[in-house]
Amino acid sequence: MPKITKALVAALEPPDSGDETTWDSAIAGFGVRVWAGGAKTYILKYRNKDGRVRKLTIGRVGTLTLDEARDEAAKALGAVAKGEDPAAEKQAHRKAETVEQLVELYAVEGLFVQRGIRQGEPMKPLTAAYTVARLRHHVVPLLGKMKAKAVNPGDIERFVKDVTNGKTARDEKIKVETEPTKRVIVRGGDGAARKVVRDLSAVFSFAKRRGIVDKNPVEDAAVRKTDNKRQRFLSLKEIQLLGAAFEELEAGGTNSKALDICRLWALTGARRNEIAGLKWNEVDLSSGFLRFEDTKTGKSLRPLGTAARALLAARYASRDKEKPWVFPAERNGEGFYGGTKRIWPIVTKKAKLPGVTPHTLRHSLGSVAASSGEALLIVGSLLGHANARSTQIYAHIDRDPSQRAADKVGNAIAAALAGKGAAEVIPLNASNG
């Protein structure tokens, strides 16, 4: 087995039929493959972590120099040593020609957080599941057959318009072997379009990093990716309506688990499944904290108010000691209670609060805290924000401390500008009580 040199590569003659490979003595598995038609390619043969022999085509002789091919072979062997499979990855990239194939590749290899303190970490399972579902329900039906490289900003704009107009909306039952019939509800509309176009932008950014496409067409499309409107907050009067609805429904026999979950959304500002999926080992009643091991932003410590502690204490007294969940499922004996999806619309209808979601309650707690004079740092602590930027949406609230300070200072200056003197200050002492 010779060491492959430039002269040897140039001297290799094509076989009468098929192909022949000359292997290198310096790099194990590295070789030059010569085809009957005269074409020559650099290749690498290796075993993957499953023990299967794989062949990776590095590049054509003439397109790559021998030294460049050796460097690529060394990199590939380094990847193999880490448990990767370069040939399989290259094959997957070749298969990702259509948008549908690209979506499926992204579902396997691309579900990572794109920004923030968790950038580069895998998405949370539920976030990943929702992301893939949106892509499969909206993107695949409308763009799936297109070549990924051919998609342009105009295609993205038409896609967003179609989703907004409900072209991908459906409500149907699907029967899967060995599984119960599933009801699939896909809603279109403006909100769905904004979410899925953000997902699609992440898919094309992933494809660009992998060299599958040259550019991300979403970036140049004239589409709206954010709400561009103020967050919805409930006033205290609206919260009173919500509380009255809870009481009326509970008196009528509505499941108390669902209503207590809803109450805790309002009392803690926690995210939907942080409460629905709460476990007793995350509840510290003695010190008054929720100690989440894993949330959207990682580990999180949230303070509990008296009302929330009292609700949880009552639940603890009657808990099922065999189950870890604060609100265990009532059927199948596994997991946490999931009935709030059915009951929440009934609550909002009863309270006459259309469009209010569980996440609205999270924003409402932040609003009440900020309007009560709490510093934004404290508001962020209540909500479990990982960075101050997430809490800035509450900075505009009319009772924010900085705004009250501006009122006080501004009034003094306005009085001076108007020629009015400052109010007389009378010091207190023992003689005047």
Automatic annotation (TrEMBL):
<keyword id="KW-0238">DNA-binding</keyword>
<dbReference type="Pfam" id="PF13356">
    <property type="entry name" value="Arm-DNA-bind_3"/>
</dbReference>
<protein>
    <recommendedName>
        <fullName>Tyr recombinase domain-containing protein</fullName>
    </recommendedName>
</protein>
<dbReference type="InterPro" id="IPR025166">
    <property type="entry name" value="Integrase_DNA_bind_dom"/>
</dbReference>
<feature type="domain" description="Tyr recombinase">
    <location>
        <begin position="229"/>
        <end position="407"/>
    </location>
</feature>
<dbReference type="InterPro" id="IPR038488">
    <property type="entry name" value="Integrase_DNA-bd_sf"/>
</dbReference>
<keyword id="KW-0229">DNA integration</keyword>
<comment type="similarity">
    <text>Belongs to the 'phage' integrase family.</text>
</comment>
<dbReference type="GO" id="GO:0003677">
    <property type="term" value="F:DNA binding"/>
</dbReference>
<dbReference type="GO" id="GO:0015074">
    <property type="term" value="P:DNA integration"/>
</dbReference>
<dbReference type="InterPro" id="IPR050808">
    <property type="entry name" value="Phage_Integrase"/>
</dbReference>
<dbReference type="Pfam" id="PF00589">
    <property type="entry name" value="Phage_integrase"/>
</dbReference>
<dbReference type="InterPro" id="IPR011010">
    <property type="entry name" value="DNA_brk_join_enz"/>
</dbReference>
<keyword id="KW-0233">DNA recombination</keyword>
<dbReference type="InterPro" id="IPR013762">
    <property type="entry name" value="Integrase-like_cat_sf"/>
</dbReference>
<dbReference type="GO" id="GO:0006310">
    <property type="term" value="P:DNA recombination"/>
</dbReference>
<dbReference type="InterPro" id="IPR002104">
    <property type="entry name" value="Integrase_catalytic"/>
</dbReference>
<dbReference type="InterPro" id="IPR010998">
    <property type="entry name" value="Integrase_recombinase_N"/>
</dbReference>
